[in-house]
Design a protein that fits this description.
Keywords: Membrane, Transmembrane, Transmembrane helix. The chain is α+β, with helices and mostly antiparallel strands. It has one domain. A four-stranded antiparallel sheet has the order 1-2-3-4. It is globular and about 60 Å long.
Length: 116
């Protein structure tokens, strides 16, 4: 039986249970990830997992804080690669949020029309 071990992660921005898995925001595999909730769209839902740095970045974005600057890097990608990943993550979260709101509003409209 394969049982995943969970650990409690707590930072200044986010806390929760984490287990080894794949981060859906940065694409890293076999890292500690936290379940941030379901992603609902097109009549389906899937669990949304993110590693601690991505979850902190997402929590700060939700709270309206500016993203922290990148650490110095030896690769040629530098800040531009981080900015692309950050923009992609922000756009993904916005798309998921909009899809969820549209889904909830369509359910509410259906219930309202069905009650008439």
């Amino acid at each position: 039986m394969n049982v995943s071990t969970q650990v409690w992660v707590q930072t200044d921005a986010i806390c929760g249970w984490a287990e080894e898995g794949n981060c859906l925001m940065c694409g890293r595999t076999r890292v500690l990830v936290m379940w941030l909730g379901p992603v609902v769209g097109f009549g389906r839902s899937r669990p949304f997992h993110a590693c601690e740095p991505c979850a902190v970045r997402l929590a700060r974005w939700v709270r309206g804080a500016e993203p922290e600057p990148c650490e110095p890097t030896v690769t040629v990608h530098g800040d531009a690669a981080f900015q692309r990943r950050y923009d992609t993550a922000v756009n993904s979260v916005a798309a998921v949020t909009i899809a969820g709101i549209l889904s909830l509003s369509s359910v509410a409209a259906g219930l309202w029309l069905g009650a008439r």
